[in-house]
Amino acid sequence: MRKITVCFLISTLSLFSCSPDGKSFDPVGALLAVISPNGGTGNPTDPGPPADAPQWVSASDAIFANKVEISWDPIPASEYRIFRKSEFESNYQQIGTSSDPFFSDTVSDTQKSFQYAVQAVTLDGNLSSMSLFDTGGIANNAGCLAKLNSFGGGTSQFLRFRSGFSGDTQSVASWGNLLLISSGGNVYLLNTSRDIIGIWTGISAEEMVTDASNRIFALSGKKVFELFSDCSQASIIDLPADSSPKDLAIDTTGNLYISEANFNTGTDRIFKYSSAGNLLKSWDLPGTFRQPNAIYIHPADGSLLVADNSSFDLFQYDISGDTPIQLAFKDIFVGQIIDMTMTGNQIIVAIKRNSSPDPGNYLVRFHSGMAGGSVLLPITPSLNSTIESISIDSRTGNVFAADSEKGFVVSCSAPIFTPCFRDIVGSSPLSIVRDANQNFYILHYKGMITKLNPNGAYLSSFFLPTYQGLAISGVDMEIEGDTLFVSGRTFNNTVLVKVGTNFTGQSIGLLPSGSFSVWTNIAIHDGKVFSDYVGIGDEDFFTYSNYFSINGNDEGNYSATPLRELTIYSTLALETDYDSSFYHMIEAQGEGDIYIGISKFNSKTLQWTTLAGSESGVQFQHLTTDKIGGLYTVEGSANNGFKVTKRNGNFGNLGEVAIPSNQITVNTIYVSDTGSSAFLATPWTLHKIMLP
C-alpha cells in the first residue's frame, strides 16, 4: 500500500507540522496562544438549590391537558406553600398549600408555561428559603396530549426540551399566538414560551397556512392536509400525479391555491381549491416556462402575486376570470426564489442569491407593494444557509424564516425586517455536563448550548460563534470549574470553543484532526484537555490522544503508542476514569464487518486493552464514566429497547437497568458523580433513571 503522508496547517499561527507517518503533531502551542486560561475554576454564577428549601421541584411538561402536577422531595415540614408566576411576570403569587410533597394546579391557559416554586413551613413554624423553580404547562388538549405522551414520553421523563423539535426545519407559521413548525417529518405546536404543547406526526409540510377561523392547512408532497386542533390530521387534496407543487396560499374566504412549476414539461399551473378540498379552477400562467416558486393572494383585491424563478420577476394577476390577466410586474434581484409573504402593503420575497460575493439568503422588500421600489436585505449572509420558507409572526410583525440546514427559525425585525437573529432553535442533544451547583449544560449539534437549572428549567442559551466566517457544529463538551470546553467542526476545521458557564469570555482555537475522521471528542482530567485523533498509516489506521494543560504549561500526545485497526471510520467517545486510564469508543472495521469497539488506554503504562472488539456483537450506543471509577455503556436499539450497563474498569458487568420506553432513542447520557443516577437525552426529552 502506498504510504500516505498526513500534514497539518494551523493558519492562525502559521504553524506547520508534518511527519511521514502522520503521527506527530504539535497542536498545543497554537491552541494555547488562542485560548488563554482566563475564566478560572471558581463557582458557577447561577446558585445551587438553597440547602433548607425543598429539593428536586418538578412541574409536569404538557403531560396533562387541564392541570400541572408539581412534586418535590419531602423535608421535615408542617406544610408546603406553592407559588406560581408566568415567565413574563416579575413576582410569584401563592396558589395553594399542601401537607404532602405534591400539588395539582388546575390550568386552562395553553398560551404559556408557568414557573413553580415551593417553600416549607418548618416544624417550629419558620419559613424555609424558596426553592429553585421548575417550568410546567399543559398540552393544547387531550388529543395533542395523547400524541405527545406516545412520542418519546414515559414515566422516566424529566423534561421536554424547550423548542424541542428535531431535524431540518421546513416551514413555520403563526396560529393565533401559537406557533407551528414543520421539522423532521412532524409538525410541532409551540406556546408563547416556546414549549411544545402538541404534535402532528408524519407530516413534512413544505408550506403551512391558516384561515380566519383558525383552520390549518399544510402542503406535503402532492397532498394538502388539514391539521386539526386535537393534533389529528386528514388528507383533503390529492394533486395530479404529473404535478410539481411549489407553494400554498390562501385567500380571505379560505380558498386554497397551489402553484406548480415543472421546468421539464413547461407546465406552470395554479390550482384553486375550496377549503373542503374541491377543485374550483386551474390556470396556466401567461408566457412559457414560468416557474411560480412562490405565490400569495393579495388580501386587498384577491389578485394573485407570483414570484417567477425563471424571469426573476414579481407578477400581479387578476384571476377573477378564466384566464389570468397581468396587472403589473416588478424586477426581483437575481436569485433563486424561495417564498413570499405580505404584511400590510409590503410584499416580502425570500431569495438565495446566485452570484458572488455573498450567495446567502436575502429578503427583497417591496415597501409600497407593486407601486414602489424594493430593497435587498440580508437574512443570514455568509453562513451558507438554506432558507425554505418565510411567514409573518402574528405577535411581533417580524418575518420568520425557516432554515433547513441549521434547524432553526430566524426572525427579521419589523418594520423594515432587518437585522435578523436566530429566534427558535430545535434540539439535537449531543453532550450533557453539570456544574458544581448542579446546573445542566446541554450541547446540541446545531451549534447551541442550553443551560437548565437543577430542576431542569430552562435558563438561557449560547450559540457557538463562527470560525473564519463558517458556522460551528457541536461534537463534544466537558466542564472544568466555571468553564465549558466544546469541540466542534466547521466545513474546514476542527475547533475548540472555550466559554464561561455564564456564557461570557468566549475564545476559539484549533484542535488537531485527521484527514479521514474529523469528529473530535474531548476529555478533561488533572488540569489537561485531551482530544482524540485518527490518522492513516502505511497499511492501516490508528488513533491516540493529544493533550494540553489548561494553564498553558504542558502539552503533548501519545502518538508513539497508538491503537491500530485496518480501518477506523470515526471516534465516538473519549472518557476518563479520573485516574490514569482513558476509554475510547470507535467505529471500525477489521477483516470482518463494521463494529463499534471499546478500548482502554493506560496513560502511565502506555498499554491498550481491548474491552469490546469486533467479536462482541453488542450494539453499543454511548459510553460515559462517573467520578469514582465507574464505567457505563448504553446498549441496544430503538426496535429492541436500550439498557444502561454499569461496569468496572475491566469491563465487568456490575448491573443493568432497562430504559423504560422503547420510544426513547438515546442521543447522549450523563451519569452523576457518584453513579447513583443517569440522565438520558432523546431529541425531544430528557429522562432520569436510577442506576444499580
From TrEMBL:
<dbReference type="InterPro" id="IPR013783">
    <property type="entry name" value="Ig-like_fold"/>
</dbReference>
<feature type="signal peptide">
    <location>
        <begin position="1"/>
        <end position="19"/>
    </location>
</feature>
<protein>
    <recommendedName>
        <fullName>Fibronectin type-III domain-containing protein</fullName>
    </recommendedName>
</protein>
<keyword id="KW-0732">Signal</keyword>
<dbReference type="InterPro" id="IPR011042">
    <property type="entry name" value="6-blade_b-propeller_TolB-like"/>
</dbReference>
